[in-house]
Amino acid sequence: MKLCKATVLDVDHCCVIPWKEHLKTTFKPLMEGYWAGVENGSFEYGGYCLMNYTKHSLYAGQPLDEMEKEI
């Protein structure tokens, strides 16, 4: 299950959750997916999680200086 965590979190919080909830609810799970990908060697989906985190943050209007601190 740990090997698939980054993949599942990316697909779920990029393709499904934004249609049902506010984008801000995807921030924490996408960062969790990023770190899961780094820890498990799933760099592709870990990178997708980080990319979608930054994209959702920008779309939700989060200030860039706050994003920089988290990344």
Description:
- The mean pLDDT is 91.
- Helix 2 runs antiparallel to helix 3 (43-59).
- The chain has one domain (2-66).
- The chain has 71 residues and is an all-alpha fold.
- The N and C termini lie far apart (25 Å).
- It has helices at residues 5-16, 27-40, 43-59, 64-70.
- Helices cover 70% and strands 0% of the residues.
Form type: globular
Strand content: under 5%
The main β sheet shows up as: none
Number of domains: 1
Radius of gyration: 11 Å
State the low-pLDDT regions, or none.
none
The tally of helices reads 4
* Mean of residue pLDDT values: 91
**Structural class category:** mainly alpha
Give the SSE order as H and E letters: HHHH
Q: In total, how many beta strands?
A: 0
Instruction: Give the proportion of residues in helices.
Output: over 70%
First-residue to last-residue Cα separation = 25 Å
